[in-house]
Write a structure and sequence with these properties.
It is a single chain. With 283 residues, the protein is an alpha/beta fold. Helix content is 48%, strand content 11%. The protein has 12 helices and 6 strands. A 6-stranded mixed sheet has the order 3-2-1-4-5-6, sandwiched between helices. A hairpin with a 6-residue loop joins β5 and β6. The chain starts with 8 loop residues before the first helix and ends with a helix.
Length: 283
């Protein structure tokens, strides 16, 4: 197969994991190339996510790298499987690649944990609320561009309602509940939907009240996505130029500690719903 011109974040991650296995085994690219019967330059392309690798070849590399973690190997094999075009691929060429990477990360995650201080969680937003956020971007987007982003955000929410829904835990600062995005009518509907959504078995919503004061990662939106195995966990950070993904262990540990702090310091789910109802009445 020819090299990919724009590998997805998931494809780059698979390559990075294969490189990590090779380095742990103290194996050279020449050794890997010999196992696969390819030129050593193609090994670098595989590890960069640029070149496709089959599930069978993933198994070959893992076996010869003496990786004994069967669950981890099977998770890598799953990443290499060709499933054709997933739903978000219809937006390729119309929306930034980073937005497609977010959808792909959410789709394959076992659990999503978020920290937000300004906005309501994306997967719990109404279309009117999302439209207000996108319309406020700089540089300004056309109406069609805004609507395209709104449509994709609404489609992303299917991970919460599919046959095997993702576990979704969100820690939302009280400030996000009081920000008047779109005016009173939009915010009232948004908060009502937020409360309704928090009743689902796979959704856990906790509010960080103003009274808590300072908290870790204040002002930063964080998503911690649990992979099929812990080695494939990913942290995504929002930025003005698009999502930033990291899977360095030090960063995973740091944001995991942030989430533990949130769990113990935010209001419990029932009290969070009570606060949301109280704020809703003010709009």
């Amino acid at each position: 197969m020819p090299p990919r011109s724009t590998p997805t974040e998931r494809q780059r991650r698979l390559g990075a994991e294969l490189r990590r296995l090779r380095l742990a085994a103290e194996a050279s690219t020449e050794f890997a190339a010999g196992l696969l019967g390819i030129d050593r330059s193609k090994v670098a392309n595989i590890e960069g996510g640029v070149r496709v690798i089959t599930p069978e070849r993933v198994r070959t590399l893992a076996c010869n790298y003496e990786c004994r973690d069967g669950s981890y190997v099977e998770a890598l094999v799953e990443m290499a499987e060709d499933r054709g075009q997933d739903w978000w691929h219809v937006y390729r060429g119309q929306l930034p690649a980073g937005l497609l990477d977010i959808a792909e990360l959410e789709w394959h995650a076992r659990r999503l944990r978020l920290i937000l201080s300004v906005h309501v969680p994306g997967l719990l937003q109404t279309d009117a609320y999302a439209r207000t956020l996108f319309a406020a971007s700089l540089p300004a987007m056309s109406r069609s561009e805004v609507e395209l982003r709104v449509a994709m955000r609404m489609q992303r929410q299917q991970v919460l309602h599919r046959e095997h829904p993702v576990l979704y835990e969100a820690y939302v600062h009280e400030a996000a509940l009081r920000m008047q995005f779109g005016g009173n009518k939009v915010m009232r509907a948004q908060l009502e939907q937020l409360n309704d959504a928090s009743e689902a078995e796979n959704v856990r919503l906790q509010v960080i009240p103003f009274s808590v004061g300072a908290f870790p990662s204040a002002g930063q939106s964080v998503t911690y996505a649990d992979g099929a195995v812990p080695q494939l966990d990913t942290v995504m950070l929002d930025s003005a130029h698009g999502p930033e993904f990291t899977h360095a262990q030090a960063q995973l540990d740091k944001y995991s500690a942030h989430l533990e702090w949130m769990t113990s310091s935010a209001l419990p789910p029932a009290e969070s719903r009570d606060l949301i109802r109280s704020i809703t009445r003010s709009f």
